[in-house]
Write a structure and sequence with these properties.
single chain; about 525 residues; six-stranded mixed sheet; 8 strands; about 60% helix
């Protein structure tokens, strides 16, 4: 007969392998994230931007375009890691994406540590299980765009904040400062950590001895770090700050978008996370409740009310927090049904495993490509590489100064053709008084007449039409191009993408032999 004591011994033996299970999850997570990337499938627009400025670091030591001296003053951490990867492996799409693979794998570890120290190691395993197989986590861990790097340092900051407020030691305070700084230098959304850490400190600080003396030192230090970070981020923040109050007064917000994402797409995790927060509140676990509640509400408010546009990528940081709170609530449910019997850990892991195996928002398959449009169709996944290889072939032995290249994107052609080879950028929303793009030096085209002038002036040229961007084209441009220019290439969807990812692209030329 199996007694409770024997069950406890078996469970103790099983959970003594936590580190091994975690290493196994991280190994699987790494494989899912890196599989297929060596095929070097095409960048999408934002990835090309990261790659360009990282290439600039190798050329000048700073993320800038040497031709125009235009600097990227925001995503320092991502561009420097990418430049390092370029230095070691060469300038390829694979090398550009590799840093995100490593950080996306490390997120699994940080989720485990944050959940374990907030609750217990079993909940940590459940949360890291979700993170390992989460489709959105895998997809964003394969992009040359630093949102998983921000996610890693953001969660690391929360971990150090919690440790510091529990132990009040210098080492964890240094950890808080360094991780917050790296978060902010990865993306301006890292600045959200300042109000979050302040709220956590105010909640836990009153239980500290010499609270008022300590609080002054803490806030002075926090203010110094904040001031240090504002200067390099000023170019991105000043326009944002100048528009915050008018936007708030006019009620501009993206609550419907994020409601659709979290409540419709991730309803199970959103619902269970809310219940988990409520359970923490009832248990009066002040620090843990404040850490998660402040992180989620302040972050959610920021992306809904303070940013210019809504995108799923901006909300990536919230998903590990949802996974942790869901695991916590599911563990409490398991405990309630088993009345704290030793089987509760197995029941919890069984239920967590069922959620993953169900397949909705998770994947166990090894794919060469994971779409960014799994939840919200918003990022064109186009085979730009094929388009620009075709252009490169046709202009290989020709004088490029006599060839016009017209595009909506300024980063894609600059990456695939080289700096200075994108001559004209289509943008109908750019004011007429702004003639050139400060980044590439390309001339803006915002009317059909301007394009006609280019067409009649240059003996040869190309124009790339992307259906997703038609709303940004001058009126009549598309029909004019289709009537008068030679169609070189058309593709409904990239060959590396999934069937439901349809992003039509057309390449037209003039002045070349048929």
């Amino acid at each position: 007969m199996i007694t409770d004591n024997k069950i406890k011994k078996i469970l103790k033996l099983f959970f003594s392998f936590d580190p091994i299970i975690l290493i196994l999850l991280m190994s699987i997570g790494f494989f899912l994230r890196i599989n297929g990337l060596k095929s070097n499938y095409s960048f999408w627009t934002d990835e090309a931007s990261t790659a360009r400025f990282s290439r600039g670091i190798l050329e000048t030591g700073f993320p800038k375009i040497s031709r125009t001296n235009y600097k990227e003053n925001t995503y320092f951490t991502t561009t420097y890691f990418t430049a390092l990867s370029f230095k070691i492996l060469g300038q390829t799409e694979f090398a550009a994406r590799l840093p995100e693979v490593f950080f996306g794998t490390l997120v699994i570890l940080i989720v485990y540590l944050l959940a374990s120290e907030s609750f217990n190691p079993v909940i940590g395993l459940g949360a890291s299980l979700y993170t390992t197989f989460s489709y959105i986590q895998i997809a964003w861990s394969r992009q040359a765009r630093g949102y998983v790097i921000l996610e890693f340092f953001f969660l690391l900051s929360l971990l150090f904040i919690q440790r510091f407020l529990k132990k009040k030691d210098t080492l964890n305070l240094i950890g808080v400062l360094l991780s917050v700084i790296l978060s902010c230098l990865t993306h301006p959304l890292g600045l959200i950590l300042f109000p979050i850490s302040t709220l956590c400190f105010l909640t836990a600080g009153r239980e500290m001895p010499s609270y008022f003396i300590f609080s002054k030192k803490f806030f002075v230090l926090l203010l110094l770090v904040f001031s240090f970070l504002i200067y390099p981020l000023r170019d991105r923040l000043l326009p944002l700050l100048s528009q915050i109050m008018p936007r708030l007064r006019n009620g501009v917000n993206y609550v419907p978008y994020y409601h659709s994402l979290f409540w419709r797409q991730y309803s199970l995790f959103s619902f269970m996370s809310i219940l988990g927060l409520f359970k923490l509140f009832l248990e009066r676990r002040k620090l843990t409740f404040t850490l998660f509640f402040a992180s989620m509400t302040v972050y959610f408010f920021s992306i809904c009310f303070l940013l210019f546009v809504p995108f799923e990528k901006y909300s990536l940081v919230l998903f590990p927090l949802l996974f942790i709170l869901t695991s916590y609530f599911l563990f409490e449910i398991s405990s309630m049904f088993t009345k704290n019997h030793p089987y509760k850990e197995f029941l919890f892991l069984f239920l967590a495993g069922l959620i993953v195996l169900n397949g909705n928002k998770f994947t166990l398959e090894q794919n060469n490509f994971y779409t960014l449009n799994y939840d919200m169709k918003e990022i064109p996944e186009i085979n730009y590489r094929k388009v620009y290889e075709l252009i490169e072939t046709k202009i290989k032995d020709l004088d490029r100064t006599s060839i016009a290249v017209v595009e909506y994107s300024k980063d894609i052609p600059a990456w695939y053709l080289g700096e200075g080879n994108v001559d004209f950028v289509i943008r109908n929303y750019v004011p007429h008084e702004i003639e050139k793009d400060p980044d590439t030096g390309a001339i803006f085209i915002n009317t059909l007449k301007q394009f006609e002038k280019v067409y009649n002036t240059y003996p040869r040229g190309f124009i790339v039409l992307i259906e997703h961007n038609f709303r940004y084209y001058p009126e009549g441009l598309v029909s004019y191009v289709r009537r008068n220019l030679e169609l070189e290439f058309r593709e409904e969807r990239a060959d590396f993408s999934t069937d439901h990812n349809t992003w039509p692209i057309e390449l037209y030329s003039w002045g070349f032999d048929k």
